[in-house]
Amino acid sequence: MPNIGIIGAGIGGLQLGLKLRQHDIPVTIYTDKTAHQLASGRLLNSVAHHGPTLARERELGVHFWPVQDYGYSCHHHYMGGEHPLSFRGDFADWSSAIDYRLYLPKLMEAFQERGGDLQIRMLQADDIEPIATRHDLVVVAAGRGAFASLFPRRADLSPYDAPQRVLCVGLYRGITESSPKGVTISVSPGHGDLLEIPIYTADGFLTALLFENIPGGDLEILSKMRYDEDPAAFERTVLDKLAKHHPQTFARVDPGQFALNSSLDILQGAIVPTVREDYAKLPGGKYALAIGDVHTVVDPLAGQGANSASHSAWITGEAIVGDLGFDEMFCRRVAARRADVVFGAAQWTNLMLGPPPPHLQRLFLAMSENQAIADEFTHNFDYPDRQWQILATPERTDAFLARHGVRPAPAAL
Asked: What are phi and psi for residue 204, nearest 5 degrees?
């Protein structure tokens, strides 16, 4: 019976630990925060879980927030500019967003109840070798900090060396949810994007506003203002920017009720999208396998990070249960099995971060005119490998549109 060590108690580490406990495999998860510290701390993110991730939760017995009660059914798109576009895409399987200050502590509790060993301790890079001596395999699922240096950056899949968006996400009261209930994805060309997400929290349903601001654009100020210095001024600025750049969301705001839920319900910052090597051989001869953010850090624009980590954890768990050892062959097999999904998510997101190329603009126009195209694009948030197959080249996008009866773009003269 193998013994597995997991560094990090995010969605990847916890779902992997829970899957291994289903097979009675001894697992220790090392993390730096208790469940109480997470539950009482600052907002961690505004992630949504898509259909396949929710299916994995059901198989793990941790679908504590049934999607029919806590989920949403669609994406509402608004694309501003000289000729605005507005359309909706429906999911085949609903998604949901649960505040991770609820989600992670509940999964930590389930992991311990099922015999998992959860150790709370601050770890440094030098700690990985002593940990490796106690386990047959170390899985690194801690996305930030010292352990990223174990896995070299892959330049071929990491086109950016600086953040492409500066972020500001907060949980707000005073916004009527969209109808039907869904995520609104709003684009202000040259300035940034907004993801408006119905999210369930300890205070009930709130609205997450994730501003993805282009550096130097009119919305960048949202990532620099400090709420605590002048809450009223911050909230006025959010309203002003919503009215100017994201009118569909602003139309559902009650200005008299609009407010940030609490001073802990805001997060600002930026990330550099990065893909790293899948695994590393440790000095003692054992291997460390990367999953989640330490493997692929993606901007939250396309809502893929947590779902990619969940997929990677599932593939890793299946391999641990079924393989004969934890050598380099094992690591290569895991890398190959997850590559299409995790790299598809990274490449699709990176494409969306740049100025939209003509083939992407053609796709958006087609979605505004053809419900089947909009629905398939939305369904593929569940399957980033399929989405990337459509978006990777102009020829692929044209072939996809042709399947839906859309004539190809005229050839350049």
From this structure: 90, -160
Interatomic CA distance for residues 210 and 196, integer angstroms: 6
SS3 127: helix
Per-residue pLDDT reduced to its tens digit, 100-146: 999 999 999 999 999 999 999 999 888 999 999 999 999 999 976 77
Distant-in-sequence, close-in-space partners of 115: CB < 8 Å, separation ≥ 6: 21, 24
* Residues sharing a CB contact under 8 Å with residue 130, sequence separation 6 or more, in sequence order: none
Total residues belonging to the chain = 413
Residue with tokens 């997850």: 338
Residue 192: count of CB within 10 angstroms of its CB: 27
Measured distance CA(401)–CA(387) in Å, rounded: 13
Dist. CA 317–CA 297, nearest whole Å: 21
The first and second tokens of residue 170, run together, are 């907060």
- Please check whether residue 90 is in contact with residue 57, taking contact to mean a CB–CB distance below 8 angstroms: no
Q: Rounded distance, CA 234 to CA 220, Å?
A: 13
Alpha helices in 23-166 (DSSP H): 35-39, 51-60, 67-70, 100-113, 128-133
Distance CA 62, CA 57 (A): 5
Tell me the pLDDT tens digit for each residue of 316-326. 999 999 998 99
Residue 46 contacts by C-beta under 8 Å, 6 or more apart in sequence?
97, 169, 171, 195, 197, 199, 208, 210, 300
Rounded Cα distance between 346 and 387, Å, is 11
E strands, 295-375, are: 296-297
Angle at the Cα of 85 from the Cα atoms of 83 and 86, rounded to 5 degrees: 150
- DSSP 8-state symbol, 213: E
- pTM of the shown model: 0.96
